Amino acid sequence: MINSGYLPPDSPLKMAKEKGELIKNGNKIPVQAEVEQIELSGHADQTELIQLVETLKPKRTFLVHGEPEQAQALSEKISDITEVYIPEKRETIAM
Q1: What are the tens digits of pLDDT across the range 20-67?
Q2: How far from the centroid of its chain's Cα atoms is residue 60's Cα?
Q3: pLDDT band at 10 (very low <50, low <70, confident <90, very high)
Q4: What pLDDT does 43 receive?
């Protein structure tokens, strides 16, 4: 998993990165994925994001930030490179 944004101290992804586990409903869930933090401009434009996907060629990409219309537009441009998913707000995704 690659994160390019700020991870608040109490965020699930920060816990996964630092402790290798998540806590859901009081239960510890081991995280078997590597979690990496990369630095991008907080205002990376669509061209920069497309270039990142072209370089990394991830199997799946989850678009979880930004306006839904912009996420859909980016999805259409990278869907031939990676499987794209745009989750709903507060949606839980099994991986």
Answers
A1: 998 888 899 999 888 888 777 666 688 888 998 999 999 999 998 888
A2: 9
A3: confident
A4: 66
Task: Dig out the tokens for 37 from the structure.
Answer: 């933090």
Neighbours of 24 (CB within 10 A): 9
C-beta separation of 16 from 35 below 8 A: yes
Q: Per the structure block, which two tokens stand in for 69?
A: 């219309």
Report the distance separating Cα 39 and Cα 5, nearest Å: 7
Distance between CA 81 and CA 59 in Å, rounded? 8
How far, in Å, CA of 16 to CA of 37, rounded?
Answer: 12
pLDDT of residue 67: 87
61: burial class by Cβ within 10 Å (0-12, 13-18, 19+)? buried
DSSP string, 74-90: HHHHHTTTSEEE-PPTT
Instruction: Report angle CA 70, 67, 78 to the nearest 5 degrees.
Output: 30
